[in-house]
Amino acid sequence: MQMEIFNLDGRTALVTGGGRGIGRAMAVGLAEAGADIVLLLVAFDSPNNRDLSQTETKEQIEKLGRKCFTYACNLELKDSVSRVIQEVLSSHEIHILLNAAGIQRRLSAENYDQETYEEVMQVNLGAAFTLCREIGKYWIKNGIKGSLINTASLASFQGGVRMSGYAVSKGGIAMLTKALSNEWATHGIRVNAIAPGYIATDMNVDTRTSPDKTYYKSITDRIPMGRWGDPEEFKGIVVFLASKASSYITGEIITVDGGWLAR
Ligand code: NAI
């Protein structure tokens, strides 16, 4: 039985990164709680984004009896982001923004070239900033008390190794979340972030399947719960943050990490 405070009937969520992994599970979770979903999907073939056909999320959402709309958007391209926001807002009333898209590029700091740094910063932080600003502006103008949810990381708290650009972007997501919360709380807009620990997705398939298990084992051994997380384990937190269940929570970065950060 669905508890009323978690109910998202009549709400519509705009979601990035919903094509697979954590973003897909969260989009489906929001739909399970009653929300309709607008997905911003990328359809390009770069070596680290292996998902060219992202129809599965839409199918899962529609099976639940919810509506799902898809728009093409490459978050790497600033014009693509600005254009799609206007397109979406001209056809949908949005109540929830979930920024889940992200990319990881593993390079030593001295070899982290400018192009890669800028790509990571734009997809992980720049596009999220633009989406937050435009949706926040629209909510203020229309008196909508929306819930904005960003996706942070353990790298929002710890610098990591061989991921300097990623750590800068995710540190930025934490501060973006707090800064927007400070400015928009008076409008009834809540801004929070979810910080995943080590979650088994395409993003880290190389680490998990490498024949040399040393690195994988060192991580797994450090997780107090002794295992990597599953994308399905993000449904609860995202529904909580999107719904009335968290009506007095804003400016928070909530870790979902099997205890990693406490250790
Ligand atoms: P994933 O690689 O499976 O999914 C990332 C999604 O972002 C994909 O749907 C992809 O199409 C989308 N995306 C990437 N570049 C894009 C672009 N240029 N334009 C539009 N969409 C684009 O990754 P995963 O693991 O599901 O990650 C989801 C979020 O969680 C990311 O923000 C990631 O940084 C974060 N995260 C993941 C962790 C993990 O262990 N998997 C740990 C900490 C944070």
Automatic annotation (TrEMBL):
GO molecular function, one term: oxidoreductase activity, acting on the CH-OH group of donors, NAD or NADP as acceptor
UniProtKB keywords: NADP, Oxidoreductase
Pfam families: adh_short_C2 (PF13561)
SUPFAM superfamilies: NAD(P)-binding Rossmann-fold domains
Residue ranges of every copy of the Ketoreductase domain listed in the record: 11-197
SMART domains: PKS_KR
PROSITE patterns: ADH_SHORT
Entries under InterPro entries matching the protein: KR_dom, NAD(P)-bd_dom_sf, Sc_DH/Rdtase_CS, SDR_fam
Family per similarity comment: Belongs to the short-chain dehydrogenases/reductases (SDR) family.
PANTHER family, alphabetized: 2-DEHYDRO-3-DEOXY-D-GLUCONATE 5-DEHYDROGENASE (PTHR42760:SF5), SHORT-CHAIN DEHYDROGENASES/REDUCTASES FAMILY MEMBER (PTHR42760)
Protein name: Ketoreductase domain-containing protein
Phylogenetic classification of the source organism: Eukaryota, Fungi, Dikarya, Ascomycota, Pezizomycotina
